[in-house]
Sequence to fold (630 residues):
Amino acid sequence: MKDLGQTLVRREAFSEIVIGNTAVVRAMVESGVRSVSAYPGSPTPEIADAIAAIPAEKRPFRFEFSTNEKVALELGFGAARSGRLSAVFFKSVGLNVAADSFVQLPLLDIPGGLVIILGDDPGANSSQNEQDNRHYSRMSYMPVLEPADAQEAYTMFKTAARLAARHRTAVILRLTTHVCHAKAKVAFSALPPEAPEPAWGFYPERENYIPLASTVFPLKRRALERLAAIEEDPEARGTNLVAGSGSSRGVITAGTAYLSLLDALEESRPGSRRPDVLKLGLVNPLPRRAVRDFLRAHEEVKVLEELDPVLETEIKALAYDEGLTTRILGKRDIEDRMGECVPATVRDILAGTWPDLFAGPRPAPLPAAASPRPPQLCPGCGHRSAFYAIKKALSPEDVTVADIGCHTLGYLPPYRMGGVLLSMGHSTATASGLSLFREHRRVVCFLGDSTFFHAGLPGIVNAVYNGHEVLLVVMENGTTAMTGHQDHPGTGKSFNGPAPKLPVRAALEGLGVKNIREVDTYRQEELTSMVREALAEPGFKVIIARHPCMLKLTRDARRRAGAAWKVRQVRVDPGTCVKNHECIERFACPSFQARAGGAVEVSRDLCIGDGSCRQTCPAGALVQDKEEGR
Fold:
C-alpha cells in the first residue's frame, strides 16, 4: 500500500490487504465516528498508527492518547453523551483499569453511541495474563461482537456503531491478537455522504444521569431490557452464521476459533460425519434463538471457544431450561482453558471428541531447532546501565519490585532486578507493603515514566502520606517505549502536536516527596553512589534515573540524517582484553559476542556507538572508533 492514510479516506469502494487494526480505522471513517481515545497496549496500537497515517486535515474525528484506560473510556463516554458517535480502544488488562466506569455504562443513556474496541490476548502474547473479558460484559450487561478476521473486524465495527447509536448504549468489539495482526484482503465500502453534525445531546435537566440508590433499579431494568432488545435486533442476529449439510454433529464457535476449525476440518476423513457449524458473531447476549434451533437440529454439539467456558456454560443452561436432549460437549480439562485455538490444537480437540473424524493421528511437529531467544533490552538502553549500577549498591537479601514496561526485563539474568510484578503502577504500593516487615532488608522499586502518569501516582501519595521506607527509582526514558514510542504527559508532546510538559520531578514535588535525586543512567558510578546514599536515609525517597530511549533516539537520528547517518562504534582491543567477560556476563549488551578461546567481539550490526559499556571493563579494553562508520 503506497499511501495508507490517503487509502483510508478514499471515497469510492475498494479492496486492500490490511491487518485487522487497520480495517477498523476505515470502519470508523465510514461510520461517522467523531471522537477516538485510547491508551497504547498490544494488540491494539496499530489502530493509532493507521489513524496517524491519515492527514490531519482529512481525519474526520479527533484522536488522543489519554493518560490511562479509565480516562480514555470516560472521555469517550463524555463525547458520546454529547451526542457524537465515539470509539475507545485499549488492551485486555486495560479493562481492569477502566472497570470502575466501564460497569456503569449500560445503566446510562448514551445518545451518540460508544464502541469499545477491546484487544484480548489469548496466549498472553504480550500481557501478564490471558484474562477472558467476556466475563466483564456479562457482569455489566454490555453487548459484545466478536469478529474472526480483518473483514469481520471492519464489518462488525460498523454493526457495533449502528447498534450503539440505535440503542443509545456502549457495545464491545472484542478483537483478539490474531484478528488485530493477521493480514487479509478486505472489501471496503464507499464513504457515505457527509452527514450533518449531530445535535447537542446532554440535557441533565431532562434526564437522570446519576445512579443513586433510589434510581439504580430502574436503570438496571433499562440495561437488561436494552440487552434483550439487542439480542433480537435483526442486524445483531445477522452476525451469526450457520454452515453445514445436515450432520447429526455440530460445533458452536466464535472468533478466531472458527477459522482454526475450518482449517482442522480440511483434514477430516472423507466420508466421516463432518459437523455442521454455528458461528456466533454476537457473543453477549447469547443469541438464544439461533443456539436453540441449532441444538434441536443436532444430536451432539461441541462448544469450541478460546479461554474460559463462557458460551459453554450459557448454552448448557439454555439446553436445560428448554428440556433439550442434545449432548453438549465442552472443555475437557484445564489445558482446554489455556492458550489460543490454533488449527493443530483444534484438530486435537476434535479428534478427542469424535475419534472417527480423522484418518489417523496428527503428524508429529518438527523438533524445535532454534536456540532459546529470551527478550532483552536494546543495545544502548539506559535501563541496562541503571540495573548494572544499582545492582552494585544492593546486597543479595535486599528486595526489588518491578513494574510494567521495558524495565520489566530487568528481572532476567544477569540483573535479576524486580522480584515481583502485578500490574501497571503497583510497584510503590507493593514495595511499601514489603517494607513493613523487611527487618534488615532494604526495599527498592522501579517505575517507568509513562506508567508514572498512568497509574503510579496513588502509590506514591500513599507512601508519602504513610511514611513508608522505600526507594523508588523512576526509569525515565522519555517515551512509552514498549508499545511503540507513544508520547505521554512528561514528553511535552501529544498525538496532536506540542503539549504542556509535566516534568516527573515537579509532579513528585507536588505530591509532597522531599527526598529526590536525579541522574543520567550512563553515569554509572554516580548512580551507584546515589543509591547507597538514598538507602541510608529514612523515609520515602526517589531517584529519577534518566536516559532517552536509544531505539527511538537512533531511529529519529537515522530518519533525519538518511544515508549520512554514522556512529563511532565500540570495539575490543584484543591486546588489552583479559577475557573476564564483565561485558557479556554482567553488563550483557547484546552487541557483545563470545568467540573461540574466550575472545570477545562487538557486533558491527548491533552496536549503536553509545559507549555506555566502556565503564564496565576493568581492563579498559573497550575503545571507540575514531572515525564514524556504518
Notes: The first strand starts at residue 14 and ends at 19. The longest helix spans residues 150-167. The domain at 241-357 is CATH 3.40.50.920 (Rossmann fold).
